[in-house]
Amino acid sequence: MMMVTAVPDPLAGAAADEAAARGRSRAGARASAARAAVFGVSDGLVSNVSLTLGVAGAHSSPAVVRLTGLAALVAGACSMASGEYLSSRAHVELLRRELDVERLAHISDPDAERAELVRLYASRGLSPELADVVAGALMADPEIALAVHAREELGLDPARLGSPPHAAFASFASFALGAAVPLGVWSLASGTAGVELVVAVALLASVALGLALGVLTGRSPARFVARQVLLSAAAAAVTYGVARVAGVGAAG
Ligand SMILES: [Zn+2]
């Protein structure tokens, strides 16, 4: 007599696995997008704090400092966006090529592809018979078969290869947001007061970015805060120092 109830429904199990993997990869994608946004804000903040402090350090007029900050915001955000677009585009094309290779394999040697799935599910603990049933069911629909192979072998979801324009816009926005912080301060204060206020606000913003990275990575925020503050301060100090020396040289 067969113990029908003791046999797990292989397709329900596989579907649940799929759903869990999708959920994990979606959560992972969100977390990595959030981290990328924090790094973008940090790039904009550090580069524009350094640049405007450098220009201010060379005793430039407040108008020149503000114009420099605005130009740096636009130039930096555009450059980040175009760089992100190109790299994201190249990445998507690479993934598409890998998918094409897999698609060709499904057309030219479906039996080998099916055997691949049988081995995979058997290695995950299904009996060879069950693994064969699962593989057979999944291979019945070419689109589902391709999606399953893409996820299992390439670790990617064919429906979510990423959007280069979206990535470019996110880069632009996050850099511009960070770069706008010192620019906003310079529109309120200038001279020594401006330098002090920019340093104070940049310090607070660096602490906030370090905290955000700590939360997003699930690690102790203290180290992220210390690293963010130290590196931002070093970048600003170097730029300020170089510009001051060069400014004195140019004036003399
Ligand atoms: Zn395959």
Query: What would you report as the Rg, rounded to the nearest angstrom?
Result: 27 Å
Helix content: over 70%
Distinct ligand kinds:
zinc ion
Strand content: under 5%
Mean pLDDT: 87
Indicate how many domains the architecture comprises.
1
Order of helices and strands: HHHHHHHH
Count of helices?
8
Q: What best-fitting shape do the alpha-carbon axes yield?
A: elongated
C-alpha termini separation: 100 Å
The chain-level structural class is mainly alpha
Number of strands: 0
The description of the largest β-sheet is: none
Low-pLDDT runs: 1-11
Structure notes:
The chain is mostly helical and 252 residues long. It has one domain. Helix content is 85%, strand content 0%. The chain has eight helices and no strands. The chain has helices at 10-57, 62-108, 110-123, 128-139, 142-154, 164-186, 191-217, 221-251. The radius of gyration is 27 Å and the shape is elongated. The N and C termini lie far apart (100 Å). Zinc ion binds next to α2, α3 and α5.
